[in-house]
Write a structure and sequence with these properties.
CATH architecture of the largest domain: Beta Barrel
Shape: elongated
Oligomer: single chain
Structural class: alpha+beta
Number of helices: 7
Radius of gyration: 20 Å
Number of domains: 2
Length: about 200
């Protein structure tokens, strides 16, 4: 297939999302704009970051994702699916391909950046944080229910606990409440849970 028939999707990584924090604004250049590699496709703002979106290739903007303009947190929650930024028709992709990395080749660099920034990349970016160390899981779930009672539908909570029964209790809790357990992991004696309010 020739380059003229291709379209390239541009977005951010979950690592940028973890470092920048919750995105609050996305301003994107218009459809039809010609851009050079390294030129700005727009700007992003978060609680900890304001900056341009450099284009990894030269091209013509064919589509912009208006959904991320209206709801910038999509960049945090779904960077590889619904949270894309723009689509470009490449101009000179064959020559510029040497500047791009395949995911498998970028693994070591990404691991080093994650360690450097102490970043945690979860499947959804939290709107709320709960640190419940030294608290029994039943008491933690009462506090989680209280928080979710005042949260908006779709809000995400990052819960950290050291209760060794927490995984089993969280599965039971999601079955009872209908809220989604989006992600979880154990780091040492700490358990991290990402929960989304569903109703």
């Amino acid at each position: 297939m020739g380059e003229e028939n291709r379209e390239v999707t541009i977005g951010v990584t979950s690592l940028l999302s973890a470092i920048a924090g919750k995105f609050t604004s996305a301003r994107l250049r218009p459809v039809g704009m010609r851009t050079k590699r390294g030129a700005s496709l727009g700007t992003l703002e978060s609680l900890k970051f304001v900056g341009p979106i450099p284009s990894p290739i030269s091209g013509i903007v064919t589509t912009v994702n208006d959904r991320v303009v209206r709801r910038p947190k999509l960049l945090n929650d779904m960077p590889y699916t619904e949270g894309w930024i723009a689509k470009l028709k490449p101009l000179g992709l064959q020559e510029e391909r040497v500047f791009l990395s395949r995911a498998v080749d970028a693994t070591e660099t990404l691991k080093n950046r994650i360690a450097e920034f102490h970043a945690r990349c979860f499947k959804a970016f939290p709107d709320h944080e709960m640190y419940e160390i030294g608290t029994e899981c039943s008491a933690v779930l009462v506090r989680l229910n209280e928080l979710l009672a005042t949260a908006s539908v779709g809000d995400v909570v990052h819960l950290v606990t050291d209760d060794p029964t927490s995984y089993v209790e969280m599965i039971r809790w999601t079955d009872q409440t209908g809220h989604e357990l989006v992600d979880w992991r154990q780091e040492g004696n700490l358990f991290h849970f990402i929960v989304r309010k569903e109703h």
